[in-house]
From TrEMBL:
Keywords: Coiled coil, Signal
Pfam family, one: DUF4124
Coiled-coil stretches: 127-154
Domain named DUF4124: residues: 11-63
Low complexity compositional bias, start-end: 57-74
Region (Disordered): 57-90
Biased composition, class Basic and acidic residues, residue ranges: 80-90
Signal peptide from the UniProt entry: 1-21
Protein name, per record: DUF4124 domain-containing protein
Amino acid sequence: MTMTLRALLPLLALATLPAHADIYRCIDDDQYVTYSNVQSRHCKKLNLESQAAPAAAPAAAAAPARVAPRTPTPANFPRVDADAQRARDADRRHILDSELLAEQKNLQQAQKDLADLPLRGVGEAGAGRANERAQAVRERVALHERNIEALRKELAKLR
C-alpha cells in the first residue's frame, strides 16, 4: 500500500498544477466563431490573464437593500372600491370552500375504492392488472390529498 501511495503522490502533485495553453479565436468564411488551442488561418490569439476569483464580500454588511422608490398610481388607472373587492373576496372564498368540499368527497371515494380493491388477482396476468389498478387508485388518492393541501393554503391566505 505504501508503494502505491508513494507512486501516486507525485502524480497528484502534478495534477494540481494549472494547465497552460494558448487559446485562439477563429472566424471562418461563414462567420462561425470557434475557439482552439491550435492556430490556423483567420485566428487571433486571446490574451487571457490568470485571475483569482473575486473574494465574496458579505452582501448584507456591504450595502443595505435598496428599496425601489414608490411611483404614484396614475390618475386614470382603474380602481376597485372596497365593497366590490370584499364581494370578490367573498366569492373567491365561497368558490374555494366548494372546491375543498368536492376534493374531500373525491378523496373519500378514492380511499373507499382503494379499500374495496381485491388483494390479489386471479393468476399472474390478473395480479399484474390488479397491481396496475391499485397503483392508479393510489395515485388518485395522492392527487386529491395534494389538491386539498393546495386549497387549504389558498384559504389560509384569505383569512
